[in-house]
Specification:
Prokaryotic/Mito_RF; elongated; translation release factor activity; Pep_chain_release_fac_I; three-stranded antiparallel sheet; 2 domains; 4 helices; seven-stranded mixed sheet; Peptide chain release factor H; alpha+beta; PrfH; about 210 residues; Double Stranded RNA Binding Domain; Alpha-Beta Plaits
């Protein structure tokens, strides 16, 4: 399993728009290549996304990841600030450390609750949603994306492990600082992939 983070580094709206396009393109490329891609979390914004964490697995996962790792450049006029002089926008894709071993059930409090629904006959009338809380830290996640309580419980443990890794891992902290350093460095040149114009047409990197 390969874990990747797509980040705008808290950059402006134009980068957030670009990041949303990139995430969708990565997921489409994964599907076309037969690579399993799972979006684990994302931070949405008014214009797109600020960041996203996703996992790739399968025979072609490493090759796909390598095609995206680094800083990505979009060359184009701002769609939200037409008179803005800036034409170059940058975001980054970085590899995250492997998620540590899942916490065991003795260290987690599981609570079940009613899953949401749109109403009518399709409402899930069973308590299939699960909230998992790590007792030592108070970190919690809620999952209702799967059909069964058992599957939601398993998914909750995985997301809880990811959240704990993000919050407590020194390696992640070092990685984040390094990622931002890379982002600023590559703004001076050498992006791994370059897109241009309102339709994000890809061109060869300079």
């Amino acid at each position: 399993m390969i874990y990747l983070q797509l980040s705008t580094g808290q950059s402006p709206a134009e980068c957030q728009i670009f990041a949303q396009f990139v995430l969708r393109k990565i997921l489409r490329e994964a599907e076309a290549a037969g690579v399993a891609a799972e979006l684990l979390s994302q931070t949405a914004s008014k214009h797109g996304i600020l960041s996203a964490v996703f996992a790739l697995s399968g025979a072609g996962a490493e090759d796909l990841a390598q095609r995206w790792l680094g800083t990505l450049q979009w060359i184009g006029n701002s769609p939200v600030r037409p008179k803005h002089p800036r034409k170059n926008w940058y975001i980054g894709v970085f590899r995250l450390p492997q998620i540590p071993a899942l916490p065991d059930d003795d260290s987690i409090r599981f609570e079940t609750c009613r899953a949401g629904g749109k109403g009518g006959q399709h409402v899930n009338k069973t308590d299939s949603a699960v909230r998992a809380t790590h007792l030592a830290t108070g970190v919690s996640v809620r999952v209702e994306s799967e059909r069964s309580q058992h599957a939601n419980k398993k998914r909750a443990r995985e997301l809880l492990a990811l959240k704990l890794a993000e919050q407590h891992s020194a390696a992640l902290g070092q990685h984040s600082a390094h990622a931002h350093s890379q982002l600023y460095q590559v703004e001076r040149g050498n992006p791994v992939r370059v897109f241009k114009g309102a339709n994000f047409r890809e061109q060869s990197a300079a």
